[in-house]
Design goal:
Immunoglobulin-like, alpha+beta, single chain
Length: 182
Amino acid sequence: MGDCMKRSLTRRSLSILLILSFASLFIAACAGADGSIGSVGSKGNTGPAGPAGASGGSGPQGPQGHAGQRGPEGANGPRGSQGDGAVATVATLTIDPKAVAAGEDFTLSGSGFAPGGAYTAVLSVGGQELSFIHVDAGSLSINDSGALNSKWRFASAKPAGVYTLIVTDEQGNKATVPFVIS
């Protein structure tokens, strides 16, 4: 290689070396320490509203409020058809005194039975009927108000305990009352 060529390579090598040196200095200058944070800028415009979210669950019920004023009374409705006059009642019985011994009298009273009919009275224990005597004169009848009142005598020598007195009218209305034999 000639002298000229050597000089040319040397100049070229020096030029490349010089360019690389400047590039290294530039990169080193850009990679310096972080600067301080700047001040906050002005607030920007509000963006458009997003879509509505799903409904939340129900909350607990609040306390009951005070009752309001009563409203005006409404008009009367049309009159209903005439019923058959039958009124369902519940028959009831009582015994006085509450406990008796064999040979003693007691009073049986009841209400809520079919008016004007007759009735039967049965003293029962474990499905067996026991003897007792109607001591009033006349039949076993129910008055026009559906009530009954009669005197009876327990005649059996059964052991002490609680028994059941059952009264049934002609229409099947039935009532029971505990009967204590002392």
